[in-house]
C-alpha cells in the first residue's frame, strides 16, 4: 500500500453534471419560464453624449430615440448582438429616471430586463411568493410588449423588469 494508492482512496470525489442532467432539478415546475436577458438599462444624464459613446466611439448599432410618456422616459437601444443596452433619459417631471439621476448625477445601471413566456402566470406566482410587483397590471414597454417591474428590495437590490417574450 504505497503513497499513491492511499492518495487515490482518500481524495474527495468531485461530481460533475453530465449534459443530460438539468441544473433545475430542485426547482419546482412553474406555469411560466424565465427566458433570456433582453437588456440592461442605464440611466444617462445626457442622452446625445451616451448615444455618441456607443455609436461613434465603440462602433455599436444605436437606435433612434423613442419617447415613452407612459413610463416617463426617452429610450435608445444599443444592439450588442446577444443582448441590448437600453439608454434611459427622463421624459417629464414625474419621470422615475429624473429621481434616479438626482441621486446618481453621472447615471448608472437602472434595471435588468428578462424575458418570460407568460407574464400573467409569472405575476400570479410571484405574488404568491411575496415578490412585490410595482404595478397592478402589465404596461406596454419599449418593445411594444407587456412588462412589469419587480421591487428591488425583493430582488437583492436589483430592479428587475420582466417582459413577455
TrEMBL record:
Protein purpose: Methylmalonyl-CoA epimerase involved in propionyl-CoA metabolism.
Q: What is this protein called?
A: Methylmalonyl-CoA epimerase, mitochondrial
Which GO MF terms are attached to this record?
metal ion binding; methylmalonyl-CoA epimerase activity
Highest lineage ranks of the organism? Eukaryota, Metazoa, Chordata, Craniata, Vertebrata
Reaction(s) this enzyme catalyzes, per UniProt = (R)-methylmalonyl-CoA = (S)-methylmalonyl-CoA
Q: Under which main EC class is this enzyme filed? A: isomerase
What is stated as this protein's family in its record? Belongs to the methylmalonyl-CoA epimerase family.
Domain VOC, chain residue ranges per copy: 36-165
Amino acid at each position: 500500500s504505497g503513497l499513491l494508492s492511499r492518495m487515490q482512496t482518500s481524495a474527495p470525489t468531485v461530481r460533475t453534471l453530465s449534459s443530460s442532467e438539468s441544473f433545475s432539478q430542485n426547482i419546482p415546475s412553474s406555469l411560466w419560464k424565465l427566458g433570456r436577458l433582453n437588456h440592461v438599462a442605464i440611466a444617462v444624464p445626457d442622452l446625445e453624449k451616451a448615444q455618441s459613446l456607443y455609436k461613434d466611439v465603440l462602433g455599436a448599432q444605436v437606435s433612434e430615440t423613442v419617447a415613452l410618456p407612459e413610463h416617463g422616459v426617452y429610450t435608445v437601444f444599443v444592439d450588442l448582438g446577444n443582448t441590448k443596452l437600453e439608454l434611459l433619459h427622463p421624459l417629464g417631471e414625474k419621470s422615475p429616471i429624473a429621481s434616479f439621476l438626482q441621486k446618481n448625477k453621472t447615471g448608472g445601471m437602472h434595471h435588468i430586463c428578462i424575458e418570460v413566456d407568460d407574464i400573467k402566470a409569472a405575476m400570479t406566482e410571484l405574488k404568491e411568493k411575496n415578490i412585490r410587483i410595482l404595478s397592478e397590471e402589465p404596461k406596454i414597454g419599449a418593445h411594444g410588449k407587456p412588462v412589469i417591474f419587480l421591487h428591488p428590495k425583493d430582488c437583492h437590490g436589483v430592479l428587475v423588469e420582466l417582459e413577455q417574450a
